[in-house]
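Let's study a protein:

___
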Amino acid sequence: MSIKEKLTQILKGNSRLANADIAKMIGLSEKEVSSLIKELEDDKIILKYSAVINDEMLDNGQSVTAFIEVKVTPERDKGFDSLGERLQKFPEVKSVYLMSGAYDILVVVEGKSLREIASFVSNKLSPIGRILSTATHFQLKKYKENGVIMGTIDEEGSGRLNVAF
């Protein structure tokens, strides 16, 4: 594994680590780590730093997340790229993926309510000419995100995972 790969793996796990700590982990100087991070940012390899948030613990109201399977007719000489680029521009859209399998594109949408998501699907997504069909799935509960377990430790704090049969 290259130094860049090691660095990106460390940052994926915890982007708040100090450069001095990262330097010790991968055997570089703090200045070299800082320079390498800047290079990765300039090269658009590191695009954003973010936190994993347990939204259920916040009192500011809940948002709704939907995963929308989209079957499309690919565009001649462009395939699926032009549609992916169009979909990514909608502010409701959080992620867009080209998929293999039963559908072509997966769109992750966030809204304030089920009605807002339904409006997005019916007024913005479905009217796009090459879309053949959609199937919308609503997130009910988040158990794990980006490798982080979301509140499944028992209330006594023993660190044991809850088990149900």
About this structure: The mean pLDDT is 89. The domain at 61-141 is CATH 3.30.70.920 (Alpha-Beta Plaits). The longest strand covers residues 64-72. The chain has two domains: 3-42, 61-141.
